Amino acid sequence: MEGRITRDNVFPLVVILDNLRSAFNVGSIFRTSECLGIESIILCGYTSTPEDSQTSKAAMGMDKIMPWKWMKTVEEAIAEMKARNYTVVALETVVGCPDISSFSFPRTGCALVLGNERYGIDSSHVSLCDAVVKIPCRGIKNSLNVASAYGICAYEITRQWSTS
Predict the structure, then answer these.
(1) What span, in angstroms and rounded, lies between the C-alpha atoms of 18 and 65?
(2) N or C, which terminus of the chain has less Cβ within 10 Å?
(3) How far is the C-alpha of 121 from the C-alpha of 106, rounded, in Å?
(4) How do the domains of the chain map onto residue ranges?
(5) Kind of pairing between the strands at 68-71 and 38-44
(6) C-beta atoms surrounding 138 within 10 Å
(7) Start and end of every tRNA/rRNA methyltransferase SpoU type domain (predicted)?
(8) pTM value?
(9) Three-state SS for 17?
(10) At the fourth CATH level, which superfamily is domain 17-163?
(11) Residue 95, burial from CB neighbour count under 10 angstroms (0-12, 13-18, 19+)
């Protein structure tokens, strides 16, 4: 099928999940990642893995297709991505950081860090990243569900890379 992304033809984007609580969110991120042609997923800390039946169920089989691995800490994951010369970007609600649409995600390789549903990304982890971006929120609530936020951001990244 024309335009279909295969595992041999993926965008150089790795998503790092730092201590996500919800197996549903993790499974949803697997589905979104496969759909958009994302390189791989790194699960850190107590983030559920596809061995968890709820994660696997929510992933709807994409946990069998998407490359993933577990690492003990987000620090290790960030260090690994930097060693691969990937730019590490935190998706977080930080005052003064650019919106995802005004940030140019580097096509040479990018790792996107997503934080815990309740606490976000720890400030010490944000400081390890090369950049921080946010999704503009106009409602009373200043943040989105992590799986929804990831879908929006990953789509923007792949949109930018598809048009550049």
Answers:
(1) 21
(2) N
(3) 21
(4) 17-163
(5) parallel
(6) 6
(7) 13-155
(8) 0.92
(9) strand
(10) SPOUT methyltransferase, trefoil knot domain (3.40.1280.10)
(11) exposed
